[in-house]
Write a structure and sequence with these properties.
2 copies of one chain form a homodimer. Chain A is an all-alpha fold. The first copy, chain A, folds into 2 domains: about 10-50, Arc Repressor Mutant, subunit A; about 70-195, Tetracycline Repressor, domain 2 (Orthogonal Bundle), CATH 1.10.357. Chain A is about 75% helix and about 0% strand. Chain A contains 10 helices and no strands. In chain A, helix 5 runs antiparallel to helix 6 (about 80-110). At the A-B interface, helix 8, helix 9 and helix 10 of A face helix 8, helix 9 and helix 10 of B. The structure holds a DNA duplex (30 and 30 nucleotides).
DNA sequence: GATCTGCTTTACATGGTGTCAAGCGCGCCT
DNA sequence: AGGCGCGCTTGACACCATGTAAAGCAGATC
């Protein structure tokens, strides 16, 4: 009979402990701290994750899974028009970035030393860039991409505009609300990428 | 009589050595390496800079001085109109960012652990933000700021658009040329911030 | 009851930062 | 010339986090 109490496995406890530590200290935590918070020995961390960066990578996966990006992006793609899709994408970014912010920082730190972390980070960026390309291509296919842009150029620009560090600058540093961030980014993208409808 | 040979003081030699190391290894260098490259003992580094982050901060100052930002920004401010000033500012960013890129990274790394580095970095950001505010305010004063923007909102947006990590994403990661970066950023800023002249 | 598994405990190696103290060469001053 | 101070060297060492190794132990399984 399985225990009915909400007891987490050691592995999960370690991950949750690391997540909590990352949320209030950034990535400046020692494995000793993580172990203590999870009420296991430091060696248990090594048995499960092999190394510090192994833990960080597992942490990224863990948070990703628990935040569930897929259902968000589903909503974006089901927008009626390309313009709506672009706006929905910005809403998604405004909503999703704060949830994965600390993880993005963790990954960013780990990539300095660990090739696996670097690869993982580049894969994340690639996925987001592909998303941007889809949005821009749809705009283009519907004849609404502003003059002067190639699909690739606009997609890469959109990708850079919606990266984590820009969000960090505006929301965390400048104190913009989620709404203000979304509103201004939408204004910017509409003015930049969207050709006005041929209303004449 | 002062020696006429181009012999650098120990302090300057250390800084140059650190700069060279940073340029090809990022910030993953040991003080031992710096000392060796400067042909001094590791302790000499401590005597001059006190600590690792002390060295990094001095390095930032050193590079800043040797690149001479002021004359660049003078050129920007002497533009005939606000729109020209905005475009000149983007040219400045496109030209100047690659020169200080590695330094910005160094500072970014140091700020994680060192409060002084954090303060220095925030001061840099403040200066650039003030510049952005001046450009946008002039645009506004000349009646050319696009509808829907406050001076502050537009200035902070421009500031975020021209930050180092966006440049890094587009130029280093995506391989954009300096010209492509400047051209597309100009197109974006014109479309976003500039109200068309009342023609007709 | 033997064994396997997952974790603990203790000890130790490694590598980089930072500190300390003694010493040394060289220019300067009187 | 002798003495002084300064800038740097030399070598040793403390510290701290990561990572490794080996023995032990307690509960589940057969």
């Amino acid at each position: 009979m399985v225990s009915s109490a909400p007891v987490l496995h050691t592995r999960a406890r370690i991950l949750e402990a690391a997540r909590a530590l990352a949320e209030d200290r950034g990535t400046n935590f020692r494995l000793e701290d993580v172990a203590q918070a999870a009420r296991v020995s430091r060696q248990a961390v090594y048995l499960h994750f092999g190394s510090r960066s192994g833990l960080l990578l597992a942490l990224v996966e863990h948070v990703d899974k628990s935040e569930g990006l897929p259902r968000y992006s589903q909503r974006v793609r089901s927008a009626p028009t390309g313009v709506d899709e672009l706006l929905a994408f910005i809403d998604l970014i405004a909503e999703y970035t704060p949830r994965i912010y600390l993880i993005a920082k963790v990954l960013d730190e780990a990539r300095r030393t660990d090739p696996a972390a670097r690869a993982a980070d580049e894969n994340r960026m690639l996925l987001r860039r592909e998303g941007c390309t889809r949005h821009i291509r749809r705009l283009h296919d519907e004849g609404r991409l502003a003059a002067g842009w190639t699909v690739q150029g606009a997609a890469e620009t959109l990708w850079a505009l919606t990266n984590v560090s820009t969000w960090e600058d505006l929301v965390l540093d400048r104190g913009w609300s989620r709404q203000a961030y979304a509103r201004r980014l939408k204004r910017l993208c509409l003015a930049t990428f969207v050709r006005p409808p041929a209303a004449g």
